[in-house]
Amino acid sequence: MYHHIASLEKTLAEFTGAPYVVATDCCTHAIELCMRHDKIKKIDSMTCYTYISVPMTLVKLGINFKYNDKKWIGEYNFEGTRIWDSARLLHPKMYRKGDLQCVSFGNGKPIDNKRGGAILCGNKKDYDVLKQMSFDGRNLKYNKWIDQKTFNVGYHYNMAVEHAIQLNHLLKIYKKKKNYLPKIIEYPDCRRIKIKG
What we know:
Blueprint: H1 3-16, E1 20-24, H2 27-37, E2 42-47, H3 53-60, E3 64-68, E4 76-77, E5 83-85, E6 100-104, E7 117-121, H4 124-134, H5 161-174
Parallel strand pairs: 2-3, 5-6
Antiparallel strand pairs: 1-7, 4-5, 6-7
């Protein structure tokens, strides 16, 4: 049944120009996995205009960061890292070589599947590590997880099969679009809130 997820990852890779794609249950978890994978301890700065789950994730991970007041359309970079929140961007050949870009399939996103995310990545090593991290530390060469005797710590952030099936269908329709320009969305200023860790 996981071939539906593999099919989605392959189609997204071809569409975005990324060599590899890891499907996840949401964009916020995709960002978390990238931060964990790259062992990020500090972000030079990031936009203050974003969804609350993003700074909450950074607080949860103990990452030091400060805000800037940059407005963005489609995506923004966590400055000082190779990680991008590309939640509102999805267009052909959007992948930036060497970077990790996290896309979203949630409400109001380019493809609205209610829930889902993915990481665009550039090499098989990143793919293998992020895939295992997203899937409870499981190595996909084992059909049954009980047959795997050693696990690195993983997270239950894998995409649901039913979401992958729906996304495969929606992506076929989306690829026929003539215009992939992202919508301009106004986010509140996260500097106005305090997150207690």
